[in-house]
């Protein structure tokens, strides 16, 4: 941490700041300029709030220098994390992995049809919600355990990995037999109790960026999972909330290279939630690949107009097939591949 | 719902839209203009997504007209909700109720000192976190059950009501003996499973606005609690995330009169989180009262510079005492009072 | 400026940063820690970009410490600026000054009626646009010079000061005979050529915060005017753009005390543009006064439903009269007055 | 326009709304439902404010249906606009056009070196600022006319088209002999007087999206230029302001396909301002091409560490050369080319 004192700070004020820095575990190096005194705190105390210093008498500015995450930082594993799944699929390697399927599992027929369609076009994971976070209590809330069983059955039948959203602690145990990867939704990115429990699970987790989460907050939430011992975490950019209302969210494509730069964890893009509009999904899916993502999460539905949720942002199966062809070309341009 | 077709929409496109509207439960009134056909959906289907219609062929625009919340809307109780607590304190009545105390319960001495100080200045509730949502897994996470016991003890001793944050379902049962009011933090505003369970609890709930939640989303989250049968819900504006970084958040003072207008639920302001800076808390507390809030939630600490969390936004006890005097004057100007 | 080097920064990288700091005029104090080297740049070079340093090899973080504005900072005039107008009205003193009137001057009758109404309720300035910045080229663009003449005539007749918006350089000369104060709208807050010319004018300027301007950018724009020698500048918070759409803008009430803290310039609030809705204007006007503003700018129209622009946010004259009574009470609570 | 009345609206309220709709030029179609009356306004009045209706007594919601821009809309020229320059370069055709060069013209040597470098890698336009909008009055403000002369000289010598920023009306005449294309910066996107004058100029204009401008506002600003008779307008996405501070702005890649969908005008991307960081420019440049842009505007400097402005976001010449190779591959994937 660096604390710059005001030009007219008194010696007493300076000593107060120094003693507080020492209290929390810093070694303090002092630079007394003709105009301004600067205090550099060296060392890394477990936790402190830089805002406390910003308000102390005589302080002009205080800045934290070290990042508050450790395990999630690129420095922890400079070569990058590759997550290996049972059937040999790897996320974080040379190949870009596509996860696709409907927003919600609606019926046996719907999910089997979906699985066949996304598999045919090259998806490696089938996505589908069994527990649905809906802003209205009156909206469809998912098929629950029945949906999970259908997912597992079709996954096994078709050779697809299964990813599905977990919304609370009690569902972790329940979902373990059915899913290959837990998905944490944007609304739960800071549900810290849930993250901590997922850190104890031995199953990969895809963590979505919250709708107003900073890059640093995403990495701190990942840190909750990693610090429990579960290192198989993927991050996912899915659009942030801005003033622009034409799209449901504003997909922050720059978050993809930024997260890759700051962290060793694989980074995916979700252009379905990122845009909220089927007609924009292909452009943003291509952009995600061009920007360096390790995978994509996309909604595809056999009949989007009849979908019980998120129909507007679900691709028609034939759109998905065409898009996959385009993505293969873009992947080549960035020296990656999509099988 | 209103669907305006494009000028060149075909009859087939129009019929497709009509049949989908009928499918979900609308009666459809059609207006065929010389330029444009407009379809008005009358009735109130339990749940539908207006975005589905926006993307249908031939559609220019689709707008939902009815609000998706029912119990939270002003129309449900035009006279406004007044929540009555055991000791006679009422939230939502003529008196503006102040809830104050430290961010976290840290020790017996700290919480007793805090209680005495806030009580002396006129607070009716003691606030204090026993379970703390912290962005970093390495930060202090609260005293847990020990903290709750201290809160109850001091509350009983001093005649103060107790409000404390609940972070997950398993804590509800655990906290019931100790708190007079549950607080749902901004990060959990859309933790729907938690909200649903709180709807079944027989204890008032203060629901904070999420950091990027719209007014409508706040009311839909309240609806989750109300629809479980728990009608004692208070809303709380605590700052939203914007591009401005001088303050921790941007306190949306206009949300206070807007929520009062749209809903019958009492509305509080939290200028401590709203600004993140002690020096700004008084101005925003006064502004909240001037704008019509029913109460305030504020952080006060016996020694903010030694607080384990949120010290920068905690008032000194003497600041709080002065502020309470100012607030009493502002309350008079809006025909309210603070005892 | 402070530059913190990465833990593994090489001596060559450190020397590169030092030499670049020296190049732009800093004296550099170096602190070599066991883990990290910190460079403190002392002195105040006229202009530099801290981002340049953030990207240099071996740099972990770079922070500018000194504020880039000088004349606009509170330190330049710690006692605060009071702007005195010809008729003895002062902005920035104990009295809170109200400026009111229609969005646009529409006709002789409309502006005379408006003037009489706002004067009767206690306004000191008549506001009214003669040149209107409209997002659509097909909207009413103002009466121009004819509108200015009407403003002057009615101002003289009624003893009201005149404030009106200037949109480009050529209008400055033109407007000088007619207005007592120039208003720079939010869209022109960073029209630097215009600001520079206003710095040469000998007439007070009210500078509105841009719709997405940071506090620092507001003060830098004020600096453009001040640095030309015109020190009679008022700042005005009028709402910023956020994700919330219920209100036209989100009025950042905290900007009022923040600007008062950082600068010596008077600060006004504009709840009409801040909310965009007549029904919210009174609450936010009261909040502005409670938060410490030096004045208010409000739209009032003899018949808002017939206004050619901004009718939805214009108060009815009787609403304005009632509001002024409330504001007088709130002013007392903060030891100010409204005549 | 559609106006939905409240369920309990009186006949008098309905008649008031109808008569106001008729006043501004609508034909009104009324649908009287059992619960709710809906009024559809047919026709297209030159200009009206939908907010006026939202606040009328008895109104539940009011929505404008028709877009307020006409000439900028896709319907005006469904096949898309192609802008042809003197040397045969076309923007809006199959080829993606790259405009590159330093932020500011600094010296004869710098601009000649820049021109040679960007030309060698395939740029068709040389960019360089002669008039610079700087937030601080103490920053370098550009070389002015001398800079323009250098641009023209080097453009002619190297066969590069010249694009440079215009900041105010008086500069239009002055710049005409020297530039092939005017650039309107983000801060001037709503400087309507400037836009109107550019509508009278016979020279293409590149219009940058304002830092907080909606898609609709971009198109309305374009409409100002088009309505003056100048149809050679290009739009440019350059990042919007959000809560995220890791990047200078958040580049809204989805704006590229959205603007292409709504308008016939060519759309460019500016990843330099979009990110503010040289290390992110390549990823976002590739993403822009993958998302369907017609061109790119990028800052390249012979020696970014010595640049007088925007050095942190300027590419090194060798980075630019490598990037251009990557872009050619991505262009192929979307059936476009870069020569």
What are its keywords?
alpha/beta, Alpha-Beta Plaits, TIM Barrel, 2 domains, eight-stranded parallel β-barrel, four-stranded antiparallel β-sheet
Oligomer: homotetramer
Query: Distance between the terminal alpha carbons of chain A, to the nearest Å?
Result: 47 Å
Question: Strand percentage of chain A, roughly?
Answer: 15-25%
Provide the succession of SSEs of chain A.
Answer: EHEEHEEEEHEHEHEHEHEHEHHEH
User: Which pair of chains forms the biggest interface, and how many residues does each contribute?
Assistant: A-B, 53 and 53 residues
User: Can you name the CATH architecture of the largest domain in chain A?
Assistant: Alpha-Beta Barrel
* CATH level-4 homologous superfamily of the largest domain in chain A: Aldolase class I
Let me know the largest β-sheet of chain A: 8 strands, parallel, barrel
Number of domains of chain A: 2
CATH class of the largest domain in chain A: Alpha Beta
Compute the average pLDDT of chain A.
93
